[in-house]
Give the backbone structure.
Amino acid sequence: MDQIEESGEDSQAPESTFEDDLVPKEITDEFFEELCSKANLTVKDLQGNGQYGLAEDFQKLLITGQNLRQQLIEEQDRIAKMQDEVSAASGRVAQAMQLSQRDQDTIQTLKSEIQDAWKRADAAQTREQNVQEAMNQMREKLEKLHGESDRYGDRDDDVGSTMNKHKEGILRERDRLYVEVEELNRRLHTQRLKTDELEQKCSESETKVKELYKVLDETSNEAFRDKRQLESLQNQHAEVVYELASKTEEAKHFKTMAEANHKTTVQQSMQMAAIRTNLERIMTHNNLTQVKLAKAQADSDNMVQLKEKVTNELNTKVNILKLKEDENNKFRLENAKLLKTRELLQKRIQTVEATKEIISDQTEQMTLLDKHQKTLENEIKAHQASAQKLQTLMLKVEKDRDRNAEEVQNLSDRVEQLNEDLLYKQNQIGELREKLKESEAKLFQCQNMLEITRGERNIFERDLMTCSKESEGLKERLKNAIRTVDQLKEETANKVAELFKANKTIDKVEKEKQTLKSDIQSISIALQHSKSELSEKTNENVRLNKTLSDDATNMNRLKKQLEGAINEKDLVKVQLTQRVEEINNLTEKLNMLNMALDRGENQYRDRLDDIRLLKIEISNLRSQRNLLTRGLANTADMRQEVLQLNRVLNQERVKARALEDEMLTPMNVHRWRKLSGKDPEKMDLIVKVQTLQRRVLYQSVTVSEQEKTLQQSEKMYDALKEVVEKLPSHKVKERLSATQRALTARTKKLKALAAEIRIKELDCKSKDCTLEQLKQALLDTKKELVKEKREKIKLVENIRGHRSEGPMLARANSSSDIIVIRTTSQSAHHSASYRTLGSGFKAIC
């Protein structure tokens, strides 16, 4: 396995160098155009070679690559535009912040001017009180004078002329005083009219000031709200910038993935082209091998026909041999008969020679017998010559048989070699088919990878669309905020103009007051008593009106704050629902990724089990190979033994057939009994022949058993051949290296998925943090609402207590000075000695 791993690492190293040489780190337009031109040339070459399917697939890949390149360029342009828009929006936000700061400064200056105006109004009120006191003193003097006149008028007329004179003088003085009183009344009436006008003007100015204060409160609330909105917009802007950065990082990551996929697609296309060329070469080689196979099959058929012919000829020759052997046997029998007749004739000759002297008449017969004997001897010689010829023929036939057997053996060896070549070619064809299947599987995997990359690209396009929509929404929000800021600027400018007008009117009123001071001082004595009561009632009314107006403004302000809090609550609810939906989507994505991880882990375990099984098979095959290599050393000896046994078998078959024929046609069985008595030597020979026949039968049985053992050994030999062919070769190493590459690719994918899961978890954590911040903000707003409610309850209680204590304070402290000061909410919280009246006013007694 170490060797195999080293081979896999060695195979991966050139692949990486090939990738580095093939695709650069940055794909420029020139490189892409060169690729497109090369791809078009390859398509033309494929079409020229007649591979239209491959040309169409390659053209589709080229079109998809161009589309992906175009989409990548468009996405880069969009990201650049979005970055420009975000920078512009950040500039606008900064301008809005500057404008809001300026508005805050102007609001502070206006507040200081309003406080100065209130101080001036308080000073004018003190002056009016002094004038009223003077008028009251004048009224008291008039009443005293009226009392004196009535008292003097009630006296008797007995008073003297002095008294009449004095009375006339008093009457004159009374008339004069009446005239003065009328003038004073007239002046007082005019002064009252003027004071009424002034009071109306003051009330109008006060109402204007109150309206301005209301507007100021509203503007301050709106400014505070705008500030909050600006802060929320800044936070959203920061979140958008962070999301944009994350999206840009994701886009870079996906860009790198797309480049890697592009590299892999280019490499796979090159590999596919190489595989296709190899396939074409293999197909041509396969066709050639098929042609060779056809030729070999034709040759084998011819050889089979030749073998059949030779076997037929052998059978015919064997039959001829059998016939000749039968004839030879017949000649032997005739020769034996002739020998017997010769012996009989010799005996007869002996008898004739013995009786020659006795029988002379038989000389002629003897001569005839001699002639006949000569003829018989000639015939015997001829038969002997024919027997010798037959023996020579038998030897030739045996030689031909051996030669034919050798030829048959050679032909059988050749047939075996051709069968082995056939098996080798068939194995090669099977291997090529397996390679074809593997290449088709790789093609299918490449198509699946392309589909997966397309799906991921669509997902990223959707994410980009959502990001663009969110950025458009943020742009619209920024535009609305800018519009609201512009409106606030216009309103503040209008309010500043109105305040300027109010200041002018206040200055005019002060000038008129200064001009009327002299008149008011002269009339103040007469109007003092009446004005004191009026002043008390007016003060009470003003105080009560102020408290009511302050309560109303506070109520309106609190209502507005409530509405703002409700709106913020609704916005937070909407954001929370959006965050919950995003969290659900992220959880779904996480579940999908976990499922993909589980699948990858299961596949990884299956691959590990397959590798373990392959290791076990490799060890088993190695042990079998060792056994077979040991058995292969004895194959040559076994072949020689098989050849010798085949020769012996053929000889023994011939003998067995001859013996079977003799057994079927026994010769002179009825004469054996006679021979055992007459000729025991022949009988012994016959017994020996029978024993030999039995031995031949026994040997034929042993030969059949040996044939069976030979067949078993041949079967074992074929099985060993198959096992040797199935032994681990370079194909198994290639498969192992391929599995190792697939495992490394899977591990890389798993690492990428783990990194994506970590990124998603970080996003989820950041979103959880934002959710917690929003929840904390909600809790803070709720606490502020509770505080405002408590303050409102306290204000209502203070107003009630003030209303109950108001008349008593007015009666007891008629000469007390009440100064109403406009303060901010912060000073109201800090100063505990002042009593708040409502809408930020304080009363100092």
